[in-house]
Specification:
Chain A is mostly helical. Helix content of chain A is 70%, strand content 1%. The two termini of chain A are 37 Å apart. The chains are: A mainly alpha, B mainly alpha. β1 of chain A pairs antiparallel with β1 of chain B, so a sheet runs across the interface.
Amino acid sequence: MATSFQTAVENLRATRVWKSIFRRGPAITNRTRSVAVFGNLFLHWLPVKVREKSLRVRAAYYLGSLSFLLFLILVITGFLLMFYYHPAAPNAYRDMKDLRFVVSNGVFLRNMHRIGAHLMVLLVFCHMFHVFYRGGYKPPHEFNWVIGVVLLLLTLFLSYTGYLLPWDQLAFWAVTVGTNIISAMPIIGSKVRFVALGGNIVGENALLRFYVLHVVILPLLAFLFIGVHFWRVQKDGGLTVRSKDDDGKN
Amino acid sequence: MMEKTKIEPGFSSDAKKEPRRIVFITRNTSAKVKDERGPELMTYPHLLVREAIVFEVLIIAMVVLALFWDAPLEQLANPLLTPNPAKAPWYFLGLQELLHFFPPFVAGILIPTLILIALIVIPYFHVNVEGKPLWGEKASKRFAIVVGVTLGLLIVLAIFDAWTIIVPTVLVAALLVASYYSKASTGWLGNLRTKPLSWWVMTWFIATALCLTVVGTFFRGPGWSWVWPWGTHAG
């Protein structure tokens, strides 16, 4: 069974179609393994080799990876949710009811998106604090730390704009409480709040603005800054490894 | 043949010069330390397999959570019916707890802005990059300054009655004082003695933010009064 499977894979790898896609032999030599990384658009920002120390769980607890993976899950579940959602009042609320009572697995879909969002905020905070305690902000990583702070802000804004979209009492008052704080800004406070909400109260205009921010502007910005963040990790010489890590513990 | 050796290499010449080695040795490091990168492994498969496993574990955990923990949906949004208390999402409840103590400008604008600026400038201060133990040189002078600043902060917090900040501040300050007077060089107290100023500030910040968020999420009821999460109250 195993051998017939292996021959099937080998036959598949020998086809012209497979070779046209991957343009390398099987990744069994260091050369083809290197090509597998730098010859692939989605992996090329990774180094070809990584330090054994930075592969240890304790080096990062995969907090950055988990944050990024959550972002991907949120994009996918978010697209699916967009199929069932109208950014208008009160249609938005009816769509929530439909997700619960009409759409197959609608509750599950919404749960995945919501849990993912809360988890992402939590893990991005954990990632930042862990990087701080490891001294990961030190040169040459200073600028990537700043990018990280921007990504933290984007995560919070993404989560907060998404919070309004169900258009229930929880959403409405959470956003009302939050945006009231903007008015405390001296001189321009009420103007900024007006721009954010598209009016003086949280209404249909605010829902539309938050929707556009949530599904287009903020995710694009997040993608952009995540790209810069990853790219800089490699350009700055990989994860921070401390001399303490030489003690051989995992 | 003798003529040729008289030609001296200039800036436009391709002649190979005797290589000169220039080593920059900054404080606390040596050229050798920078070189110790340790053994390396191929990204494919070692890193990618690990990432794949992490992804699978994450997906499984999320599916299990999503099966048993339903997203809440309350009544249709009604601007005329204000719930008491009206709460922001959990990650802003620390700020909302601050609003209970300080004027809106201070709690909602000034403090978040200062936190943001403080986070951004961390890597640009030499003292944070060096990370020398706080109780290293001039320990007694530093101790006097730290105690003075902490007491000043506690007086301001006491004026505003902000006890959910006072409690974590006192706890962290107690550890700080204990680490100053301790003679330990091993154990957790000995470990604390090696911590730099930035470590103490960040730990104080996290302790305070955690305390404010937990209190704001679980212990605040109608009119932002103190409630027990297991008690019953009309909400």
